[in-house]
Write a structure and sequence with these properties.
The structure holds 2 protein chains of 2 kinds.
Chain A lengths: L22 E2 L4 H5 L1 H21 L8 H29 L1 E5 L2 E6 L5 E6 L5 E6 L1 H5 L2 E7 L8 E7 H16 L18 E5 L2 H9 L2 H20 L3 H24 L3 E5 L2 E6 L4 E6 L4 E8 L9 E7 L9 H6 L1 E6 L1 H11 L8 H10 L8 E2 L16 E4 L3 E6 L4 E7 L5 E6 L1 H5 L2 E7 L8 E6 H21 L16 H9 L4 H5 L15 H4 L7 H8 L1
Antiparallel strand pairs in A: 1-2, 2-3, 3-4, 5-6, 5-11, 6-7, 8-9, 9-10, 10-11, 12-13, 12-18, 13-14, 15-16, 16-17, 17-18, 19-20, 20-21
Helix pairs in contact in A: 2-3, 7-8, 10-14
Chain B lengths: L13 E2 L4 H28 L8 H28 L1 E4 L3 E6 L4 E7 L5 E5 L2 H6 L1 E7 L7 E7 H17 L5
Antiparallel strand pairs in B: 1-2, 2-3, 3-4, 5-6, 6-7
The chains are: A alpha+beta, B alpha+beta.
């Protein structure tokens, strides 16, 4: 139970009675959201005065007195209209969490009513832009599998309320039945156990050694050589905007990745990061569709890796930088960090020796860890990669590794495979090779097994279709707490083996992730017959 | 060149209607003849003396090469159409296509989000339709073109029924 129990007499923004009541976001939010508009108006009127002061001219012209009322009136009208617009928008935006749905009504000219099913939640993020953070406010984003904009965005709530609402939504989505005798009782926030954090020094190092830096140095050297050869100083000037852009990009990565911490709770993986703007993501169990561990060449010096994931609600890369930080499960980490993240994503690795197999996927060559690689006849097509391009399957996931210099390991849980396809072009046919593509939701990871032997690829195509079918049959309900929890034991050895430190789950005495990956068949109808988890009963599990 | 299929062995493929060749021919004609005509414009202008710049050999070569490529594609169309196939298995639908660049795809019924049937003007004239399957993945580009309308409707109903029976979450 958290301390966020709403005090009596608090304003109506508190989601203290989750069922049925329509609530508004925090009254300050129109101003926090509209600060840009206000700043623009202030800039428009302030710039003129500022310039005059700089130039030593009188602040007001002689005939200013005649124009002043008009100026003030116009400025006031614009200001009033802007503020009124935001306030109206705030007034007409109401949300409600009840009966397995979250509903949001918004708009005053064009009304919009939206409802999203709680058990379809793919992720919940709490975002705090700098200004909102100063006021102790936060934005809550509720993602369903749409890959577009967030299904529900509530901007802004008080931080405590946002966390309470998140706990409430997650508890309902997980299938926790609140005590019917005390419906006023807010859902307890699930306890969490820190798993890892990224020290700032490592983050800076990773940025300096990233692929981007490599090209920066290359570009810089090229410009210097060019200007020396052509005796043209112009090249230095081209470097200035490039340097500014780069600084902004590095700053963006640093700002986003600063103080990255990952934790595990029964409600899923919790990620927190950010220097000025902070963000807290919650990924419920089993929501990760595909995962990629990659290592740029220079990171090999320190043994660093990066993990990116596909989550159905986050959408594809490209449009904005926000997605790229949201789909990063680990910005930079060493092998033990990678292994503990993998054990969170894949609580049941489906193999007796996960450490050896995943390490072979990250660093191995040839048939280490049971990987099947490109046959020797394909070495002309992939002179460097043929010993590394390969796959292996555990009982729960398919592992695809590739890249000799840009090392990559892609992990796709069998349960998450959407469809799959074999591809073969004329050149590959000549060498008796084929590619196997697994289709997953939009995101940075696109799993493709390249240059496998044609027979192996064909066998894998059949085997993978069968494995995915079995895994789908075992998947039962979206209520993750209603699922059997037993196989989570399998996850603990991963962390133990690979970290050599205190195991995550045992040190805290509670269970870590509910294992979604392997559950017994239990039709949804039965899920409701199971005894409801009242707050007392769920104490040992959730509290 | 050896064009051994990469499909899993022992599958009986349903082929699409041979009339689909006509649809492809119309598409081919619209795309390729237009390209050849546009690329031939400089030749006409050079021959008539309006333009000086593209030398005659270039003005001839470009449309000629385009024409040869277009004719090659034309010759491939019947084989490409014959290469398209689909097979309904117990738990997934297999779709194959291509000769040089082969692709065999398996779409599990439980993963289908919705099924589209599209009919273009030429297809309508021939009584054909195109079936498209959508999963949660944008990478699933599962098209079965050139189905007879009745077969398309049957397949859609069949897929919907099977999808409902095996529906899985994401």
């Amino acid at each position: 139970m958290t301390a966020d129990v709403p005090e009596p007499g608090a304003p109506a923004v508190l989601p203290k009675t989750p069922d049925g009541e329509w609530l508004r976001v925090h009254p300050a939010s129109p101003f926090v959201r509209g600060w840009l508009a206000l700043a623009a108006i202030g800039f428009f009127f302030g710039r003129d005065i500022f310039e005059r002061m700089l130039q030593g001219r009188p602040v007001f012209e002689e005939d200013f007195a005649g124009r002043a009322p008009w100026l003030v009136a116009a400025g006031g009208a614009v200001l009033l209209a802007t503020v009124a617009g935001f306030v109206l928008e705030w007034y007409f935006t109401k949300y409600q969490v009840s009966g397995g749905y979250v509903r949001v009504n918004s708009g005053f000219l064009f009304r919009q009513q939206r409802q999203a099913r709680l058990d379809r939640v793919q992720a919940i993020d709490i975002v705090q832009p700098l200004l909102a953070r100063i006021f102790g406010l936060a934005e809550l984003k509720f993602e369903v599998a749409d890959a577009g904009e967030s299904a529900v965005r509530l901007a802004f709530l008080r931080m405590d309320d946002a966390r309470q609402l998140r706990a409430d939504i997650l508890a309902r989505a997980a299938g926790v039945v609140l005590d019917p005798e005390r419906p006023q009782e807010p859902a307890p926030e699930a306890p969490e156990h820190p798993v890892l954090s990224v020290p700032p020094s490592r983050l800076v190092g990773s940025l300096l050694l990233s692929e981007q830096s490599f090209f920066v140095v290359l570009g810089g050297v090229a410009s210097v050589i060019l200007s020396a050869v052509t005796e043209n100083r112009g090249f230095y000037f081209y470097l200035i905007p490039a340097a500014l852009g780069l600084a902004a990009s590095y700053w963006g990565s640093f700002n986003k990745g600063y103080n990255f911490t990952a934790a595990i709770s029964p409600d899923g993986i919790r990620l927190r990061y950010g220097l000025l703007d902070t963000q807290a993501q919650t990924l419920p169990p089993g929501r990760i569709q595909a995962l990629r561990v990659s290592q740029p060449p220079l990171w090999r010096i320190f043994g660093w890796y990066r993990i990116q994931v596909n989550v159905a609600g986050y959408g594809a890369l490209g449009s904005n930088g926000e997605v790229s930080s949201r789909t990063t499960l680990l910005p930079v980490g060493k092998l033990p960090d990678v292994m503990s993240m993998l054990s969170l994503v894949l609580p049941d690795p489906g193999t007796a020796e996960p450490g050896r197999i995943f390490a072979a996927g990250l660093n191995g060559l040839d048939s280490d860890g049971g990987f099947v690689t490109t046959p020797r006849r394909g070495r002309l097509l992939a002179p460097l990669g043929w010993r590394r391009n390969g796959f292996t399957a555990t009982a729960t996931a398919l592992l695809i590794r590739s890249g000799r210099w840009w090392r990559q390991l892609v992990v796709v849980p069998h349960q998450r495979t959407q469809s799959l396809a074999l591809h073969q072009g004329p050149l590959a046919r000549r060498f008796g090779l084929a590619d196997l593509v697994l289709h997953t939701t939009a995101g940075p990871v696109s799993p493709r097994l390249i240059q496998a032997g044609a027979d192996e690829a064909r066998a894998l195509f059949d085997a993978q279709a069968a494995r995915a079918r079995l895994a789908r049959k075992r998947q039962t309900t979206e209520h993750w707490l209603a699922q059997v929890v037993e196989p989570f034991q399998a996850a603990v050895p991963v962390v133990q083996d690979l970290q050599g430190t205190a195991p995550v789950a045992e040190s805290t005495g509670t269970r870590a992730a509910p294992a979604v990956e392997s559950v017994e068949p239990a039709p949804a109808a039965e899920a409701s017959d199971t005894p409801p988890l009242t707050p007392q009963q769920e104490g040992p599990q959730r509290g | 060149m050896r064009t051994e299929a990469i499909d899993p062995p022992g599958i009986i493929w349903q082929r699409v209607s041979p009339k689909y060749i006509t649809v492809r021919l119309v598409q081919w004609a619209i795309a390729n003849l237009a390209a050849v005509l546009i690329l031939s414009l400089p030749l006409v202008l050079v021959l008539s003396g309006w333009w000086r710049w593209p030398p005659l050999w270039l003005a001839i070569t470009v449309p000629a090469v385009t024409l040869v490529l277009a004719l090659w594609r034309l010759a491939l169309i019947p084989r490409q159409v014959r290469a398209i196939g689909y097979a309904e298995r117990d738990d997934d639908l297999l779709i194959r296509g291509g000769i040089f660049f082969q692709r065999t795809m398996a779409v599990p019924y439980g993963r289908m989000q919705y099924v589209d049937i599209a009919v273009g003007p030429v297809e309508r004239g021939l009584g054909l339709c195109t079936l498209k399957l959508h999963t949660a993945s944008p990478g699933t580009n599962a098209l079965i073109p050139g189905l007879p309308a009745a077969e398309g409707a049957r397949l859609r109903e069949q897929l919907a029924a099977r999808g409902e029976a095996r529906l899985a979450g994401l």
